[in-house]
């Protein structure tokens, strides 16, 4: 039995007639750029997030970049972010001309350690990007309090966390703006690149809309330097078919996560494998089901030999990436981040994963540790 990290084929088969019809309608209309499908998705995702505006952009990375620019972040500014995240979080800060300032993570949740943010603040700090990693929200109340006190913007990196909740508030309404990615592997995935920013600020929404079309307003008149970063109409048509299923898919992911955690508790020792902790305030959406394990690389190799695919998100922290060498960080600066890079491993996770597949995955992990001790 070969078990992939993610298998999108069953989902496509179940939605195929609707998707084909939606694509055919767009192609028949010849309206390919910023049409009614983009507008519908923007309205739906904004209202799902309980805010007024959605701005469809080309991908989640551009969403972060454009959100920062709209908030006025630029050269000379500092933006606080975790280093245990996908590259785009910090890439967007640097692309805006600002300086990423990395803060270590809470080892229990893998998210930014809110208690350490205050000591990273300077009079140049302009914004904080909490990342809701793996589908679990960062600890937002202390971050919101700090942002309020020091007049900082919060830009949620919610690329992995559409539908997740913090104290009964959905991602998307926990800061100045929030960024979603519809990369194919995300919980709501397009069939190519796509992304969205949501915000409750009319002024920021307007700036973002201008930035995604070359800074043009009115058309062919440019007061700011913008980009060509639009959410494609065909991708929006696909996402409109998928969006009504998102809550159910997230629920299924939570069910699968519960099954994994139960199997792990029954069969494995805490000494070898730690199941993910779900904070009592969180509605986790398990974009990834991520363990902390001993002897990670050997376990991954063993699982691979047994036809079980796993992934390491992320093997190298951002503060030690060569492209950020100029920031002057060195090994040891963010100990929890560096440890997580050595211990984290994500198991196959998707709504259609079967119980037999989950039993097989945990059984093989058990075989590894029983053989190894
Ligand atoms: C996927 C992802 C992004 C970027 O999204 P793209 O649509 O791939 O550009 C940003 N941040 C995090 C945490 C992500 O997982």
Automatic annotation (TrEMBL):
Residues of the active site? 186
Q: Mind listing the UniProt keywords for this protein, alphabetically?
A: Pyridoxal phosphate
Q: Does the keyword Plastid apply?
A: no
Say if the entry is tagged with keyword Ion transport: no
* GO BP terms in the entry: polysaccharide biosynthetic process
Q: Which Pfam families match?
A: DegT_DnrJ_EryC1
Recorded hits in InterPro entries, A to Z, give: DegT/StrS_aminotransferase, PyrdxlP-dep_Trfase, PyrdxlP-dep_Trfase_major, PyrdxlP-dep_Trfase_small
Q: Which Gene Ontology molecular function entries are recorded, alphabetically?
A: pyridoxal phosphate binding; transaminase activity
Modified positions (N6-(pyridoxal phosphate)lysine) are: 186
Belongs to which family?
A: Belongs to the DegT/DnrJ/EryC1 family.
| Name used for this protein in its record | Transcriptional regulator
Q: Which organism is it from?
A: Paenibacillus contaminans
